[in-house]
Write a structure and sequence with these properties.
This protein is of the alpha/beta class. The protein has 2 domains: 16-257, Aspartate Aminotransferase, domain 2, CATH 3.40.640; 259-377, Alpha-Beta Complex (Aspartate Aminotransferase, domain 1). Helices cover 40% and strands 16% of the residues. The chain has 13 helices and 14 strands. The strands form 4 sheets. A 7-stranded mixed β-sheet has the order 2-10-9-8-5-3-4, with helices on both faces. A 3-stranded antiparallel β-sheet has the order 11-14-13, covered by helices on one side. Strands 1-12 form a two-stranded parallel ribbon. Helix 1 (16-22) runs antiparallel to helix 9 and helix 10 packs antiparallel against helix 13 (368-377).
């Protein structure tokens, strides 16, 4: 028998409470029984995002929310500053290009965070820029970008929107959307919200809704104006992923019981333990600055094939972590600690990495990383 553990940064483990809720008979998404369920989810998301904005609920992955963030608020020919410090930063540019929006790319070396001054310089250079797009947490590199500081800069430009992919940040770090001046903020169900993939959530400010009135990009499925109108009646524009919304209420109830402050502290504790373990093992963090609290990206030792490492961890030991993407393929592996994670998930991930690396011939002392993690995990 092999027991399996999911320690990847999405999808993440789903708690039994949410699984049980989703196993109940399906409720029709247009029936009166479903209205209070969607209303509860809608209010719970506002609590999580720390916003007075409407938070749209879309049947899609987080990328669908990113697409909607472009085609609902911009027009062909508009310019958008795009921070590209990883695979998902590049995705912003690709989506812009698909709709005729012109990306002004700020290319940041992978493993580093963008400097707010870089964004400010682009906005000063061209006041006609209509949006700034960034990842709060770049999942491919494990780097946290300075979202709050950039939000303060964008606030000074009344015709420029601040659009943030918070897919692996929301529910992990303290990220008050209204206070930080985020006009469009996106997350997905399969991350800190502890659900299967299939839902995207998008907070939209009044400033963004004003831009929506003149935006000319084509849209059909991701039509946020229609979604907002339907959500006012506790409906969605198209068929609701009703079982996932039932699970969402269960997950949000768990999060409310824990409290936002405790959620943020838990993620910080798990991240600190993971990083301490990595250093004790003699390995290097890939994030050279501002590491994310959602996951830890780890450089593979010289002479070790990262692809083979993650395969051994999964196929032999039953522990699924993530490898590197694009130019980082085979060079890093990524252990998550967001959502339904706690003390012994970290111990399992570090122990498995030690064993697999030792098996592959790396200079690893078994138990050294685990001991370093335990020292931090002891301190609640």
């Amino acid at each position: 028998m092999k027991k399996t553990y999911l320690l990847a940064p999405g999808p993440t483990p789903v708690p039994p409470e949410a699984l049980t809720a989703m196993s109940m008979p399906i409720i029709h998404h247009r029936s009166p029984d479903f209205i209070p369920i969607l209303e509860s989810a809608k209010n719970g998301l506002k609590w999580l995002f720390q916003t007075d904005n409407v938070v749209l609920i879309l049947a899609s992955t987080g990328t669908g929310g990113m697409v909607g963030a472009v085609n609902n608020f911009l027009s062909p020919g508009d310019k958008a500053v795009v921070v590209r410090g990883g695979k998902f930063g590049e995705r912003w540019s690709e989506i812009c290009e698909a709709f005729g929006v012109l990306p002004i790319n700020i290319d940041v070396e992978w493993g580093y965070a963008v400097k707010p001054s870089q964004v400010e310089a682009e906005l000063k250079k061209d006041p006609s820029i209509k949006a700034v797009m960034i990842q709060a947490s770049e999942t491919s590199t494990g780097v946290l970008h300075p979202t709050r500081e950039i939000g303060e800069i964008v606030k000074k430009y009344p015709n420029c929107l601040f659009i943030v992919d918070a897919i692996t940040a929301m529910g992990v770090i303290d990220m008050p959307v209204d206070k930080w001046g985020i006009d469009v903020c996106i997350t997905g169900s399969q991350k800190a919200l502890m659900l299967p993939p299939g839902l995207a959530f998008v907070s939209v400010s009044e400033k963004a809704w004003k831009a929506n009135e003149s935006a000319k990009c084509n849209r059909f499925y991701f039509n946020f104006k229609k979604e907002r109108k339907n959500l006012e009646k506790n409906q969605t524009n198209f068929t609701t992923a009703s079982s996932l919304v039932v699970g969402l209420n269960s997950a949000l109830s768990m999060m409310k019981a824990e409290g936002l402050e405790n959620i943020f502290k838990r993620h910080e504790r798990l991240a600190n333990a993971t990083r301490a373990a990595v250093k004790a093992m003699g390995l290097k963090l890939f994030a050279k600055e501002s590491p994310s609290l959602a996951l830890t990206a780890i450089e593979v030792p010289e002479g070790i094939d990262g692809g083979k490492l993650t395969k051994i961890m999964r196929d032999k030991y039953g522990v699924t972590v993530a490898g590197g993407q694009a130019q980082l393929k085979g060079k890093i592996f990524r252990i998550a600690h967001l959502g339904y994670f706690n003390t012994f998930d970290i111990i399992i991930g570090i122990s498995c990495a030690e064993m697999a690396l030792k098996e592959m011939g790396a200079n690893i002392t078994l138990g050294k990383g685990v001991a370093a993690a335990e020292e931090i995990l002891l301190k609640f």
